[in-house]
Specification:
Number of domains: 1
Largest sheet: 7 strands, antiparallel
Shape: elongated
Number of strands: 9
Strand content: 15-25%
Radius of gyration: 21 Å
Order of helices and strands: HEEEHHEEHEEEEHHHH
Number of helices: 8
Helix content: 25-40%
CATH architecture: Alpha-Beta Complex
Oligomer: single chain
Length: 304
């Protein structure tokens, strides 16, 4: 293959880029609008079609900078931030317990989706984007996979061409302003299977090849990095970490780091959830104001 001017321009653009956040490819929703999406499976690694994770966030007490990081309990590992919260919950003073409410621990999911209709951004139509969702949509999707709705939907929700569209209906909570953080998705649903006539075999292969590595969207930090993050941005220890080591949610690692396991017995997630229950997630001032069956799926997909 001959090296062309177009290839050179791509290199030059990459060299001069300021580094776009991976979250630019996460769909943004608005209250009062409905979005039609088709879930796109990871056909090479079906188990990674959906990434279920926990994350901590707060506004730095040293700089007010918004911080967000994946919680190692996502991978069954010990988390220094959760350990601090448990210790404070058990033995901390009332003042320390109140301060601890500044740090949230939230549950989220990421999935690749093919955009059928996007009333907020028409340019997304026909492209693969990421759907980041919470418990409301998780309940709907999980019910369709192996719950009460699985007989009607099941594997069809991962069939891009002949499957079921996820209709994400965004409604403002009663009495709340039309802003993202007040949107509810409880009326969203999968609809009956239908065919997208504009996708042939070649186009389908392109769609499957365009999926994002969902585990690489968030920076995955080691236990020492998380402890330094806590020391500098919660306890305000100035020399705990340099500015180059700050953890923010728009950095993408080259590979998943090794997380350090502690010898102590892991605390039940239910206890951790209870400690963080009711704590509101911190928000970045710059971001929008918004709040498997491996073998079976792989076999079904191979027959499509």
């Amino acid at each position: 293959m001959k090296f062309t001017n177009s290839m050179f321009n791509d290199i030059k653009t990459a060299m001069t880029s300021k580094g776009e956040s991976a979250f630019k490819d996460v769909l943004k929703f608005e209250a009062g609008k409905t979005y039609n999406l088709r879930l796109v499976p990871n056909i090479n690694q079906p188990k990674k079609s959906i990434f279920h994770y926990y994350h901590h966030s707060w506004n730095s007490l040293a700089s007010t900078k918004f911080l967000s990081t994946v919680c190692p309990t996502t991978f069954g590992e010990s988390c220094p931030i959760c350990s601090h919260a448990i210790k404070t919950f058990r033995n901390g003073s009332n003042e320390e317990k109140e301060k601890n409410k500044l740090i949230s621990r939230k549950e989220n999911w990421l999935a690749n989706v093919y955009v059928v209709a996007d009333p907020s951004n028409a340019e997304n139509v026909g492209k693969v984007k990421m759907l980041r969702y919470g418990r409301e949509l998780a309940k709907i999707i999980n019910e369709a996979i192996d719950g009460e709705d699985s007989e009607d939907f099941g594997a069809k929700i991962f069939d891009v061409v002949n499957g079921c569209t996820l209709r994400v209906k965004c409604e403002a909570r009663s009495g709340a302003p039309q802003k993202k953080q007040f949107v509810t998705y409880g009326s969203s649903k999968f609809v009956a299977a239908s065919t997208l006539d504009d996708i042939d075999a070649g186009r389908l292969a392109e769609i499957h090849a365009s999926i994002f590595d969902l585990e690489a969207v968030n920076k995955l930090a080691t236990s020492p990095e998380l402890q330094r993050m806590l020391d500098q941005h919660y306890f305000c220890v100035e020399d705990a970490v340099s500015s180059e080591d700050e953890i923010v949610d728009d950095e993408i690692p080259s590979k998943k780091p090794e997380l350090t396991k502690k010898k102590e017995v892991s605390k039940p997630k239910t206890q951790i959830d209870d400690i963080f229950e009711g704590v509101k997630e911190a928000k970045s001032k710059s971001e929008d104001e918004d709040d498997f069956y491996d073998d079976e799926l792989k076999d079904i997909l191979s027959k499509m």
